[in-house]
Amino acid sequence: MNRIFHKSSAFTIAVRLALGLFLTGGCSSLPQPAEEPLHSAHAILKEDVDYPVDIFDPLEPLNRGIFYFNAQFDRYLYLPLVNGYQAIVPDFVEQRITNFFDNIAELSTLTNTLLQLKFKQTAATAGRMTVNTTIGLLGLFDVATEFGIPKYDEDLGQTLGHYGLGAGPFLVLPVLGPSNFRDTAGLVGDSAVFTLLDPFNFEDHPERMYIYYALKALDRRAQVDYRYHQSGSAFEYEWIRYLYTQKRRLDIRGNVQAKTL
Amino acid sequence: MDKRRIAATRKDGLSMYCLERRQVSRSKIPHLGWLLAFFALGLFPGSVHSAEDSGYGFPLTNPYAATIIGTPESDRADLPELPTREVELTIFPEREVPTIFWYNKRLKVGVALQKERRAPLVFVIAGTGAGHSTPTGVLLQKILYAAGFHVISVPSPTHPNFITAASTSQVPGYTESDVEDLYRAMALAYASVASDIEADAIYLSGYSLGAFHSAFLSQLDREQQVFKFKKVLMLNPPVSLYRSSLKLDQMLEANIPGGMDHMDAFMEEVFQAFAEVYGDSPVNVTFGGEFLYEVYKRRNPADAKMRALIGAAFRLSAADMAFVSDVSTQAGYVVPKGSHLRIIDPLADYFKVLNRLGFDPYVNGLFFPYYHRKTGKSKTEIMEKQSLRAIGDYLRSAKNIYLLHNEDDIIMEDGDIDYLKALFGKRALIYPYGGHCGNINYSQTVQDIHRILKSGE
Questions:
Q1: B100·A234 Cβ contact <8 A
Q2: Does this model's pTM top 0.90?
Q3: Sign of the C-alpha dihedral, residues B161, B167, B173, B178?
Q4: In A, which residues are within 8 Å of B319 by CB distance?
């Protein structure tokens, strides 16, 4: 545009100005609103329909920002470290580490099945932990599964949901990913239980704590195939939000089948 | 295209090492490649005659079941693990990518190389809306890798990554320009691995829309002579892109229980079923069509529901495609012109609107206005170019192009299979069953593919 102006003679500039005035003369001087798209939301969408993708997310801009941060963190720091870990550590050892942390995680299943009064599950979990910690050498070997003892998965978030607490606003936690108010409270609670019990005596041996959490961070991420934006979809945030929320509903309900498809 | 300007940037430092997805045994389902389906009312063979009559052992005679489930475990060929690496290519260094598509700035291709440097190379072009790592594509890659090829896998021009990173027009569906974009991307991909391999011959393959593109790529290569494809292997292409897509769109609308007014309730059911699948295998998270196929395995819905599911898969894919195209070209289709969407901006409304609209509105509201402005042609003229019939003479005379298809492929219109038989003659291998790409890793199919590739060496 600038180039045209520089090359134009004073005459053509004058003509342009005149035309401009002529054309806008009758219009108001207020700025025009943004042009409506061909298909706008208020024309297409219905007021009375509950769209499945609409999850309660009052902190959405913040969450989306953290989602973006997580994607970068994953790509530039977390995954390279995990890849390094997997490259250096022999598969056999990796599997032992995974079993070890899986065994510790059963602690939260133990306490929460108890809180939910699911005593059969508590007993099974106690059995698993005992077998794996003893015969399985501190959880390095998952002997309990070989013995056929079923594995459950409960946490404080599910317990709170079991007793009727709603999910609350959707949350994206730094590094940890999708969550919500209730499940985050659950995470904090479950961690507190572990910290209080302190089975490895981190209080007296803080270096153990660093190794423990470092290995755990690497192992837990290695277990999850998810790669941010691998789908390439522009709506990945909406998908993750929906799937996470629905998954938790199913977890709490005990995976009851939804309506017939 | 100037061969000397091939300047691939192989981002070793940033290339992401794809962890080979752990194949949960029940999720070995081929992806439809966002199939372009023709809903032939009552014309699919169903259980008209058993597989044994024709001497073909593929067990699934319902084409929808075959399409969705794929080959049952006991009938599959034994295929090797793929040592795939993801390589990121910068195709347009000067391009300003909208902020919200930052993750698609570079084209992501899959590379699986043989241990020996010297081996033939094959390009695999993905189906509709698919990237390089979509399950059906991976099956084809494994088959080719097992035959001794270096494999480079390229996303479909209808995939958001391709639209953002590799498409000049950023309005997918116009075959002539999609194929030029593919050719450029393939050249850059080749350049990125050229120092690691010695390709004694270059082949081309693709499934569904990728097979369709392969036909046009072969013709382009005959002029440009960059690759000089030794053989081209097409699996289950559509004949008419537009007509197939339209029918697929209608598949959803015609099969929602209670009609279109109940679409949102139906989508809720679909999404809930997704969540069940996700709940069981959160480590295997992918979105869209693949979930639908898991859903089928669990719920075993009737044919009508299956068609609706397939239509829904296509629509979700079309939504992704239309959104990226709209924002990238500021077309004002569902996003107001001049919007500069930020990463923190909610997008759910656009998702909802696009799911409501589907494929035909994309053609009428975005695709056609764009290409009409560019070429001056009418809609009929433009749509007729997007068909294998437009290059029929070439396909008939090209002795190095082979076709695999199925009589009961649900994307084919009346007369399409017969047309292809006449066109390809002895170079066509048409099985009686398999649906759309359902029998790709069936043991006989794999044997036949290997035989075709090795013959006349």
A1: yes
A2: no
A3: negative
A4: 235
